[in-house]
Amino acid sequence: SQTFDVRLDAGQAALVEIEEQGIDVDVQVTEPNGGVIAQIGDLFGGQGRRQMVVAAEATGAFVLTVSARPWPITTGSYTLRLTGFRQLTASDRELLRAMRLQAEMRRAEDAGNLELATASAAEALAVVERGASLSDSDLALFIFNVAQLYDNGAERQKARPLYERSLSLLERSVGPNHPRVALVLRRLGVVLTREGDFVRADALISRALEINGKTLGPEDPHLGLTLRDFGILLEGRGDLAKAEEMQLRALAILEKAQGRDRLQAGSVLNNLGVIYIERRDYQRAGQYLERALPLMEVLYGADSTHVAIAFQNLGIVARDAKDYAKAEGYYLRALASRQKRLGPEHPDVAATLINIANVYRSKGDYPRALDTHLRALRMFERTAGPGSPSTLLSLVNVARTYALLGDLANAVTYQTRLEQATETAIALNLFIGSERQRVAYLTPIAERTERTLSLNLQLTPGDPDSTALAVTVLLQRKGRVIDAAADMQAALRRQADAESQALLDQLND
User: Tell me: the pLDDT tens digits for 163-177?
Assistant: First the structure.
């Protein structure tokens, strides 16, 4: 790092320009009493200029510290220009206040206080929008920072509109194919994946991958993180083979990275553990999760919500080994971290409750399992929405637990709600991807369909509601198959020559 002093009188502002030439730099501004009043950084890119205003409310020497990012290791240069002075304007004072709040946000975030960090970031954004003059690019960075904090905190539902706004500003200011645009696309894609909107998520993350491939090197950590998030999307759609391929590619990149980016390999190891859990290869899953845990603890802190994810997955592995005490211990550690960091009403808290309820069910404590599953379902419906994958999974568990208790009327009621939500999800997500990916997406849905039919045929053969549900679901799924076959034949016909079309006509006859 290098430091530069600028002496200012009270009420005076210095106009500063920083130009990056092949290397990312951060600029920290310290006022005469030693307090940090601004920390300015770019997302990445290593090229371009940014304007700064150093505003003085008191007379003295202000210190500008320019630091190169410690990773990735690269060489380059920068130019720092003092382009002029002026008297403070009302806009300068608002910008100074916003910068102070942003510096406070970063200190709170580093200390693990997401609630204070989010409050400071939101207030800084409000100040900027009220009167501070910023370029579209700088405003997009402000908005992106707030969105990330909401995304990681208790008010996750506020993240998506902010990401969308940041994306619009960046596309207008730096162009549609800039690496910063790819970053926002990736984060927005993760949000949509979590909400179950795989169609839009696929389009956004695929576009981010295309931009990264054109603008970044093959071992750039941002490319690795985009591959990781695309793998999460594929896993959510049930394409475990392709998801595993993406995560292994991401792991190969991030394990070669430096500093914080290298530690991000922990999240990829955790994702691979999840894939092997879904394949019921619990031994292999445990090996990856054990490797993930120390990296995630160093990166995020031992009681962070990110580490809670690893604890939750280790609990699944322990439950498969029928070590229910150990599994419950892992889940309770995850639950405590999430409730502390995210509050009592959050989708991640609900996800942990599902795991705890499954331990109770494995131990034969069905009433306690049902009560816990119903708590999780109510949380998901309020926070994730009725069509999210998490809500569908929760409905599966509630219906199954009612059936174990012998309460078949409620089992049919919740199975009906599940099938209605599933049909909506199919309509939203079936018509994307390759044929193999569609089959992978439908595989768990086929298992749910079999469960619905078994509920009627084996447990409630004389119940009219159960029979109506089974017939409706069977006809809906059959209709999907017929529609898919018709669409495929229409596509073949469009591409076929006259002789091939005649053969298709003979087959239809």
Answer: 999 999 999 988 999
Q: Using CA atoms, how far apart are residues 3 and 428, in angstroms rounded to an integer?
A: 54
Q: What are 282's two structure tokens?
A: 């619990």
Question: How remote is the C-alpha of 406 from its chain's centroid?
Answer: 38
CB 319 within 8 A of CB 282: no
**Cα distances (Å, whole numbers) of residue 399 to 140, 337, 509:** 45, 29, 44
Identify the band that residue 43 occupies on the pLDDT scale cut at 50, 70 and 90.
very low
Least trusted range by pLDDT, from 87-91, 253-257, 291-295, 354-358: 87-91
Supply angle C-alpha 342, 331, 261, rounded to 5: 60
Determine the Cα–Cα distance for residues 487 and 475; give it in Å rounded to an integer.
18
Q: How far apart are CA 115 and CA 55, in angstroms?
A: 28
Please check whether residue 22 is in contact with residue 75, taking contact to mean a CB–CB distance below 8 angstroms: yes
Q: Does residue 501 surpass a pLDDT of 50?
A: yes
DSSP, res 89: P
Can you give the length of the chain in residues? 509
Contacts of 225 (CB under 8 A, 6+ apart): 186, 250, 254, 264
Q: Which amino acid is at 309?
A: I
| Cα–Cα dist 281/79, whole Å | 54
Mean pLDDT calculated for residue range 213-226: 90
Distance between CA atoms of residues 401 and 33, nearest Å: 63
Degrees (nearest 5) of the Cα angle 42, 45, 49?
65
CA Rg value for the chain:
27
Cα torsion 428, 240, 233, 174: sign: negative
SS in 3 state form for 186-244? HHHHHHHHHHCCHHHHHHHHHHHHHHHHHHCCCCCHHHHHHHHHHHHHHHHCCCHHHHH
pLDDT at 41: 65
Q: Is the pLDDT of residue 445 over 90?
A: no
pLDDT of amino acid 70: 59
Average pLDDT, stretch 400-408? 91
Q: Give DSSP secondary structure letters for 468-496.
A: HHHHHHHHHHHHHHHHHHHHHHHHHHHH-
Chain centroid to CA 1: how far?
Answer: 33
C-alpha closest to that of 17 among 62, 83, 101, 72: 83
The residue-averaged pLDDT of 476-490 equals 73
Asked whether residue 507 carries a pLDDT value surpassing 60, the answer given is yes
Side chain identity at 202, as an amino acid letter? D
